[in-house]
Amino acid sequence: MKTTRAYIQSGRAENAIATRARILAAAQELFLEKAFEDVTLAAVAKASGVSHQTVLNHFESKAGVVLGVAEALATQTDHARNAARPGDIGGAIAALVTEYERIGDANVRWAMSGDRFPELAAQMDVARAGHRTWLAAMFGDRLPTESPEREHVLDALHAATDVYVWKLLRRDLGRDRAETEKTMADLVVGVLRGIPK
């Protein structure tokens, strides 16, 4: 049987986990809405209903909060994108655009701030590597097997599906979601058709 002390420790551990999750959820909302430099630890604390010191106790710094948010977003994004079946171009692009609709504006802001904030640059590198891994999983059976040509095709697929293409179509040119998906799918088809047999 658990002792009173064990129940207290268990309750504290559960409270700490719940507090950490609340801080991450609040921070994620703030980072999705605002520029990186406009999100402060004080704002994260206020949005999550805890003290500034509590945020520091859980994450040590703004960089720690960013890392936690980036990991949570990566998990959510991986889950959403991997719902598409490998080889299904339309399904893959629909899953990708769904994520860009949710977090694309924040991705662009983070990428643009990366040269000023090393913690962001590191997270953007991780995100780009994850995107490339996803592309290889989605279209691997149609990629060349030889390394230089395979890398070239992955580069082209990455360029065709990058968040900046979504931003260009949706935000700069004002295309609707269906047009955006069609254009990105057409770009992917063009890349894959250009692979020598």
TrEMBL record:
Keyword flag Transcription = yes
SUPFAM superfamilies according to UniProt = Homeodomain-like
Residues annotated to bind DNA: 40-59
Keyword Transcription attributed:
yes
List the Pfam families hit by this protein, alphabetically: TetR_N
User: What region holds the HTH tetR-type domain?
Assistant: 17-77
Q: Which UniProt keywords apply?
A: DNA-binding, Transcription, Transcription regulation
The portions of this protein that span the membrane are none
Q: Which InterPro entries match?
A: Homeodomain-like_sf, HTH-type_TetR-like_transc_reg, HTH_TetR
Q: Output this protein's name.
A: TetR/AcrR family transcriptional regulator
Ranked from the top, the taxonomy reads: Bacteria, Bacillati, Actinomycetota, Actinomycetes, Mycobacteriales
